[in-house]
Design goal:
The protein is mainly β and 119 residues long. It has one domain: Acid Proteases (Cathepsin D, subunit A, domain 1). The strands form two sheets. Strands 1, 2, 3, 4, 5, 6 and 7 form a seven-stranded mixed beta sheet that branches. Strand 5 and strand 6 form a beta hairpin. The radius of gyration is 14 Å and the shape is globular.
Length: 119
């Protein structure tokens, strides 16, 4: 199985000129995206809640959640984001991908437009 990494610009929704460019591992099995907490704080993004998550090995962890803008290749979408802690990977999850109108092609390991169906 291959890994897919993409460069993504994230921004503070309240101050969209505050940006950071990061390399994310696209994780189609992750619901939320994870960004280092220090990066989010530097952008002025504040957490609005804390949730408990279960890792693949069954371990429970808590992470703070905020909201960020994600920008890839001219596409823009707002999405929840987890405040990553030391040892956490920088991940691009499915909620952010869907907000951007993108999907991971698991065979070619590239992002492509998500078919948009209404109704």
């Amino acid at each position: 199985m291959g890994l897919t990494h993409v460069k993504v610009t994230i921004a503070n929704p309240a101050h969209p000129r505050r940006t950071a460019k990061l390399t994310f591992l696209v994780d189609s099995g992750a619901i939320y995206s994870v960004v280092p907490g220090e990066t989010l704080r530097r952008l002025g993004i504040k957490p609005h809640s804390t949730r408990t998550f279960i890792l693949a090995d069954g371990t429970e962890i808590q992470r703070r959640i905020g909201d960020a803008l994600f920008l890839i290749n001219g596409e823009r979408g707002a999405s929840p984001v987890l405040f990553g802690e030391k040892g956490d990977s920088v991940l691009l999850g499915t909620v952010s991908l869907e907000a951007l109108g993108l999907i991971l092609d698991p065979i070619k390991r590239v992002l492509k437009p998500l078919p948009m169906v209404l109704g």
